[in-house]
Amino acid sequence: MKLFIKTFLILLSVLVLFDSCQKESTIETKLIGTWNRVVYDHGGTEKWAFTADKKIFVILNYEKYSIINDTVTSGNFEIKIVRDTHGNFYNKNFRKVPQITISGFNNFKYNNGQQNIWYPAYNTAWIINKLDNTTLTMSTNTYDNKPGGLEIRDFYKD
Prior knowledge:
The chain has a single domain, classed as Lipocalin (Beta Barrel). Helices cover about 15% and strands about 45% of the residues. The chain contains 2 helices and 8 strands. It has helices spanning about 1-20, 25-30; strands at about 35, 45-50, 55-60, 65-85, 95-105, 125-130, 135-145, 145-155. The longest helix is centred in the N-terminal third of the chain and has 19 residues, at about 1-20. The termini are far apart.
């Protein structure tokens, strides 16, 4: 019985250690590049470019307003591995997940009353739900510095 308990504890330690092994640098390496945002609301296309020096550039195509491949805002990002704050009683705060904190976004272009071009709302912490070679999904429960429902942004690699 003691051997079973020791084996169980060793396996549990390995699992916890494996879960903790996600490194910020690995997440950042996967994130670097240009991502196409899946856009449903404004009839244009939007690309987010993440650079190795922790900068983000949002490039917009919105023909309705003659915006063609224009960088409409830029900011900074930081990656951390944090305890998951979503979920139910069984998994909440147990597993570690990558988090991206975006700052510096503003409407330095095309802030002509368009409700769907409001980039300062992205200046918050986002949990990275999925990140692989082709897909990025991130979510937050704070949008435009207001707590509320879950905001989700989906991207595919350019």
